[in-house]
Amino acid sequence: MKDLLLVIDMQNVYTKGQKWECDGIDKVAAHISRIIDSNKCKDIAFTKYVCQQNPKGNWKKYNIINKKINENKWANEIMDIFEKNTSTWMVYEKCVYSSYSIPEIVDKVRSADRVIVTGVVAECCVLSTILQLIDTGVEIIYLTDSIASMSDEKKKAVELILSGFEPMHIKMMKTDEYLK
Asked: I need a surface site. Which of 6, 85, 113, 129 has the fewest CB within 10 A?
């Protein structure tokens, strides 16, 4: 089975003490690192959000509201825990929520048997990506403990929504279960 590990937006802005801090981000990063170190996934892709240069519609408002974050180079970089991995595996930039908007990710998904979804933010970029992945027909594994959210309540809401796609389009499990 050829698994693509998709690591969505594990950027510094989501770490403890930052403006967009996600609950349990350190545990999520540790789980993702374990998956990478296991060599179970033959392909790994990191994505990161960068602001649009010429945004339209609500993205203009988004950029105004988040101007300080968008201009903070450190906040937008992939977390240090993944530094050794990003020298081996590509980091693809996107300027919308879905990682499936990136042509190289589309190509990687097409050549994978399954997509293992990890990262942040469950209720935003992760959910948007998954909804597009479902339409491709690819098998999706959503690792519940390898995905962070702005709050536990929001994370549970996303999992409730995604449970409607189980088991046909998505399988939800924990990292340990996947690594068995």
From this structure: 113
The rounded mean pLDDT for the chain is: 97
Terminal-to-terminal C-alpha distance of the chain: 14
| DSSP letter assigned to residue 134 | H
Is residue 82 exposed (0-12), middle (13-18) or buried (19+ Cβ within 10 Å)? buried
Tokens of 17: 């003490």
Residue type, 153: E
pLDDT in tens, 109-157: 999 999 999 999 999 999 999 999 999 999 999 999 999 999 999 999 9
Hey, what domains does the chain have and what are their CATH numbers?
3-179 (3.40.50.850)
